[in-house]
Amino acid sequence: MGTTETRTSSAAISFETDPSRYRHWKLTFDGPVATLSMDVREDAGLLPDYKLKLNSYDLGVDIELADAIQRLRFEHPEVHAVIVTSLKERIFCAGANIFMLRGSTHAWKVNFCKFTNETRLAMEDASAHSGLKFLAALNGICAGGGYELALACDEIVLVDDANSAVSLPETPLLAVLPGTGGLTRVVDKRKVRRDLADVFGTIAEGVKGKRAVEWGLVDATVPASRFKAAVLERAQALAGQSDRPATGRGVTLGPLNARESADAIVYSAVSLSLDRAGRVATLVVRAPDAPVEATPEAILAAGDQFWPLRVFRELDDAILRLRVNEPEIGTVVLKAEGDAARVLEADRVLAAHASYWLVREITHFIKRALKRVDLSAKTFFAFVEPGNAFAGTLCELALAADRSYMLNDPERPNAIHLSPMNAGAYPMSNGLTRLAARFYGTPDRVAEVLAHAGPFDAAEAAEAGLVTFAPDEIDWDDEVRLAVESRAALSPDALTGMEANLRFVGPETLETKIFGRLSAWQNWIFQRPNAVGEDGALKTYGTGRRPNFDKTRV
Amino acid sequence: MGTTETRTSSAAISFETDPSRYRHWKLTFDGPVATLSMDVREDAGLLPDYKLKLNSYDLGVDIELADAIQRLRFEHPEVHAVIVTSLKERIFCAGANIFMLRGSTHAWKVNFCKFTNETRLAMEDASAHSGLKFLAALNGICAGGGYELALACDEIVLVDDANSAVSLPETPLLAVLPGTGGLTRVVDKRKVRRDLADVFGTIAEGVKGKRAVEWGLVDATVPASRFKAAVLERAQALAGQSDRPATGRGVTLGPLNARESADAIVYSAVSLSLDRAGRVATLVVRAPDAPVEATPEAILAAGDQFWPLRVFRELDDAILRLRVNEPEIGTVVLKAEGDAARVLEADRVLAAHASYWLVREITHFIKRALKRVDLSAKTFFAFVEPGNAFAGTLCELALAADRSYMLNDPERPNAIHLSPMNAGAYPMSNGLTRLAARFYGTPDRVAEVLAHAGPFDAAEAAEAGLVTFAPDEIDWDDEVRLAVESRAALSPDALTGMEANLRFVGPETLETKIFGRLSAWQNWIFQRPNAVGEDGALKTYGTGRRPNFDKTRV
Q1: Chain A window 295-334: which residues touch B at a Cβ cutoff of 8 Å?
Q2: Chain B contact set for A553 (CB, 8 A)
Q3: Is B289 within 8 Å of chain A by CB?
Q4: 3-state class of B283 per DSSP?
Q5: How high is the pLDDT of residue B9?
Q6: Sequence-distant (≥ 6) Cβ neighbours of residue B2 within 8 angstroms
Q7: Among residues A372, A507, B238, B382, which one has the fewest Cβ atoms lying within 10 Å of its Cβ?
């Protein structure tokens, strides 16, 4: 669709922000209830060629939202419920900005939708695992991605006036899908009857008032006069369900302070080097240099410098940058360096204090960062070499890889380690541990490798099926070089499709349905002339021209 | 991708055939073991512009395969296992014909893959529910769709010679996916480890011998000298697991003898009329005109004229023709006419004799025909009018519809009926009954409507949630007309994506993963220039030119 794409991604995008820099959201606090208010600045889009009118959003708006949710979890343990609302009159949110979408490359659209889906899932993760509940207080029109944001909340309250409705107008107005989880959440999460969802998905003006409640699209409608009070009352009730600490300080998430050069990003415990000609990046994570803090008090004092949090915040940032800023990098070589014993020690600390709120947050954060790896359209190869630190939590990276190569040289000891943290702390989007996905259908083998005491050397790891190949020192260089080179020769699209299928064996969840089924269909539609062609609805919307559709049903 | 598509579908395709007309398969019998041998005639493709070399296939080859599997179930109850093999030397099957794919429109490729997937799932359905087991006897090279056919069998035996391998070369050679279920079946069904599947999916030459067994790609390899004997022995063992009758005659599936005109296809109990200008078809199914046969003996004697089998064979054919021959028809209006009491009586017969082999076959066939409706890229609206026969099994059609409209006119009685056949006989691809999918998350409502004695009038049906809308006689004409017209104004692609998401609420299965996740990614790739562009791999394969890929990872 080259002719319809007028712009590739612009200057490198940063995913780091903090409330003092928010342009689009306001975060306020009132005891256990925080309020996150959308107030999008029209002229503060990531790119200058569209205006973010009517609280419509682009990636920059969602980066702030993701940051706010993250900070609420770490910096504000005393917050137990969040009201998500808008500061604009009569408008909650108009959804993703159409003019931004119109001007975006296919890759940008896909990455944008992926990130917004991850942000919404992070809200549901906070509700499910962190006792942080969300209430969407829809004070006005709530359309498209705006309603998808509301769907990610635990409850939805809509103001009852002549104006305010919820809607998914993507299909009738733009010829695309409500692709930020919308269709899946309507039927799978809110359990709206499929025929009513079909009607809802085709009427641009949406549904309001009593009917919105009857169909299950919102939980309640409340007249404007009682809206604020009703919202607060419900938010307080949600807060009452929380198991977060009632008081106590949180942990500030400081800047990552990465050092950037033309072909590298160096963090404290992660480094990313880019070989753009070869279309390969090398991502190295490092074990702690010293024993990690071992008590809740010490972990709290260490804060964002506590190694497990620090290394995975850096990893998460590196993955996001790779996705959006390095579209032509096809393969990421994963390495882990340093003292495996220190990683295993960190795992013991995480396991011992699993019920401490901050450790719980850290563990779930690591889980989400690892999911980003699973969901990235890059090939991951783990190279396991002498001195590696693929142990326990870091071994999840090797297990997340599409393939792993482990040097088998008797002269240079080389081992990987599992820990109890591999047994359930970091489920994939499909609900399986990476070991269970690896040995899908043979749970005995999962139990066996978890029961194995001590390290696996290369021969043992290959025998146990924990690594793909274990070449000896004679073959190693050629084999890993060829693996990377031959990967780069394959079609990037076919690889994305293949990996998206092979990585998610077994059961599917709301989350995998969003990324597998819904996103895959949306990506298809994002290629179709009926949406993105010169006469397609994304191009003609707002121009006065009507779209001219190819009528073939495919 | 208009520029890359040189041909739309040709003359109307017929899905009817019989063994006397097979050009590509031979069906032979030896007691409980049948042999289905692929011997594709190069010059007998559906279209003249490609040669079906090396047992490669097109839709015509798969139509014969689907027919053979169907006939084995109905006409040969004495067959308990089927050997699937090839009559070509050193070649089992080279997969879907690349030159056919190259010359096909996007819509054709998508429909081709959908049908082949349904055929393979029909084999697995026969194994799971009908005691008919399949053994793939790979007597030579087995590539791509050939291996996907093997994967659909219960067991795979590969000849052990210097030549024969199994492979999925789509990604490395053609920049597309093994999209006839391949990727899903490799990891989900055969439980090949995901990293080994990744390797397998990228090496064009495939895997043979001991490694193929170790990786789980085949169940055994056997030297050529012992191949036939080993295959027969395994087939006999599979046959021994069957619960089909040991002897007895089957039921011949005669021709459907539809009467065709320019804008209608009229069968005995189904009629399809086409309004091509309005892009809408009306599909009418008719209740039995007389009481159906009520004993196993009478059902066997009635054979393919037994109403439940007859009406759903006709429906299945009509749906297939609509998909392939009427790509611009967007909406199908479903109607059921005749005496609902006779449908309910037929349901009582089916339920009473559920364990009789022929009734079992008929029930599973109805299930598969209904699944084709769910999986069709057409909008289905059920219109429920006075005199309708949406009862029990036929009511599944109303429940399969994206929406249903029921006339509520107290002067003209109008009712729908459920029967015990709505409680589990016809699960969707996701394993749920249509009622359970409709009331997803509220199983009590399923129990409630099933417990309801007697008919639901329009008000009751709307109240119970069994129909979408129940307009009165004043609104009816306008409302249904507007529903159809406004549907036709929407983007066909967006509708396909929306319906594919809303229809399959809840759990996913191997089957829904194939149609939802794998097919959706394949459809995306089938639009991508890296596959179908002038420099894409599907275009350059076999030309001596190398593909030139856009390197962006999306």
Answers
A1: 327-330
A2: 107, 327-330, 377-378, 492, 495-496
A3: no
A4: strand
A5: 43
A6: A529
A7: A507
Report the first-to-last Cα separation within chain B, whole angstroms.
18
Q: Give the Cα separation of B424 and B554 in Å (integer).
A: 41
Residue A417 identity (one-letter amino acid): H
B112-139 burial: b if 16+ Cβ within 10 Å, else e? bbbbbbbbbbbbbbbbeebbbbbbbbbb
Nearest CA in chain A to B196: A468
Q: Which residues pair with A286 in a beta bridge?
A: A337
> Among A545, A174, A202, which Cα is nearest to B331's?
A202
Which two three-digit tokens encode residue A218? 């919102």
ipTM > 0.90 for the complex? yes
> pTM for the full model?
0.96
CA A403/CA A457 separation, integer angstroms: 17
Point out the residue among B193, B490, B554 whose CB comes nearest to the CB of A465.
B193
Is the separation of the CB atoms in B15 and B46 below 8 Å?
no
Rounded CA separation B384/A285 (Å): 63
Is-contact A347 A339, C-beta < 8 A?
A: no
Closest-CA distance, A298 to chain B, in angstroms, reads 40
- In sequence order, the 6+-apart residues with CB closer than 8 A to the CB of B275 are B263, B281, B282
Phi, psi of B240 (to 5 degrees): -65, -20
User: Rounded distance, CA A250 to CA A116, Å?
Assistant: 26
B141-143, strands of its sheet edge to edge: B91-93, B141-143, B166-167
What tokens were used for B162? 């210097």
Tokens of A107: 């890759």
pLDDT, tens digit (0-9, with 9 covering 90-100), for B450-470: 999 899 999 999 999 999 999
Q: Which residues of A touch B554 (CB under 8 A)?
A: 106-107, 110-111, 327, 377, 492-493, 496, 523
Q: Is the pLDDT of residue A151 over 50?
A: yes
Chain centre to alpha carbon of residue B258: 21
Q: Are strands B264-266 and B259-261 parallel, antiparallel or unpaired?
A: antiparallel
β-pairing, B141-143 with B91-93?
parallel
- Which chain A residues are closer than 8 Å to B497 by Cβ? 177, 521-522, 524-525
Confidence of residue B392 (pLDDT cuts 50, 70, 90): very high
**Please, which contacts does B536-542 make with residues 24 or more away whose CB atoms are closer than 8 Å?**
B536/A491, B536/B4, B536/B175, B537/A491, B537/B173, B537/B174, B537/B175, B537/B176, B538/B98, B538/B101, B538/B102, B538/B174, B538/B175, B538/B176, B539/B4, B539/B102, B541/B98, B541/B102, B541/B173, B541/B174, B542/B98, B542/B99
Residue B469 DSSP one-character state: B
State the average pLDDT over residues A2-16: 61
Please list every residue in chain B whose beta carbon sits closer than 8 Å to the beta carbon of residue A468. Answer: 195-196, 198-199
Average pLDDT over residues B283-299: 98
- The pLDDT of residue B247 is 81
**Tens of pLDDT, residues B70-81:** 999 999 999 999
How many angstroms separate the CA atoms of A430 and B204, rounded? 30
Residues of A in contact with B522 (CB under 8 A): 497
The CA–CA distances, whole Å, from B122 to A251, B130, B152 equal: 56, 10, 9
A34, A83 contact by CB (below 8 A) = yes
User: Distance (Å, rounded) from C-alpha A501 to C-alpha B183?
Assistant: 6
β-strands B280-286, B331-337 pairing: parallel
Chain A contact for B144 (CB, 8 A cutoff)? no
CB atoms within 10 A of CB A125: 20
A positions 158-187 inside 8 Å of B (CB) = 170-172, 174-177, 183-184, 186-187
Q: How many CB atoms lie within 10 A of CB B485?
A: 13
Query: Across all residues in chain A, what is the average pLDDT?
Result: 96
